Amino acid sequence: MKTLVKTVAAVALIAVSTFVMAADKTASISEKAIVNHFTADLTLEHYVAVITEGESRGVNQLFTGDFNQKTQSTEAKAIGRDQLVEFLKSQKGEKLNCRVNTQIIDESADYMIAKVTMKFEHFTKTDLITLVREGSCWKVSTSINSYK
User: N or C: more exposed end of the chain, with fewer CB within 10 A?
Assistant: First the structure.
């Protein structure tokens, strides 16, 4: 009888441990999930979600290696890919309180230029972005922001 109790307890402990480890692996897999960037439209949608909704999944895959972002305001500022990715990861889950309008200005088989307008209560941010095809995936290569 003691052997049966020990066996049942061991099986229960193994089962619980397995479920806990599986749940932990699922969380880390979703954080590193690959996002579908096979079309310019999907990449643009993902970019808007990252910028306005705090989506952090796949942010490392979103930008080209030589990405740069310029901001036109009282003084012009420029940042690179690593700085922006670090900032966006810190904004995980933060949703902007704005209305978003996306307009494709020009596109071809290998690039797209789009305008993303974010209308806040007291100002408007316009983000002019260029997407390029790198192999079979699309990535954001430049971003120019202005404020009104």
Answer: N
Task: Fill in the amino acid letter for 74.
Answer: T
Nearest CA-CA partner of 68 in 76, 83, 82, 79: 79
Kindly provide the residue ranges of all beta strands, DSSP E only, lying in the chain, ordered along the sequence: 63-72, 77-80, 99-107, 111-119, 124-134, 137-147
Quote the CA–CA distance of 53 and 46 in Å, as a whole number. Answer: 10
* 13 Cβ neighbours under 8 A, 6+ residues apart: none
Name the token pair of 40. 């310019």
Q: State phi, psi for 112 to the nearest 5 degrees.
A: -145, 140
Q: Could you list the pLDDT tens digit for every one of the 148 residues in the chain?
A: 556 555 555 555 565 555 544 444 443 333 445 666 778 888 899 889 888 888 888 888 888 889 999 988 777 788 888 888 888 887 788 888 899 999 999 999 899 999 999 999 999 999 999 999 998 899 999 999 998 8
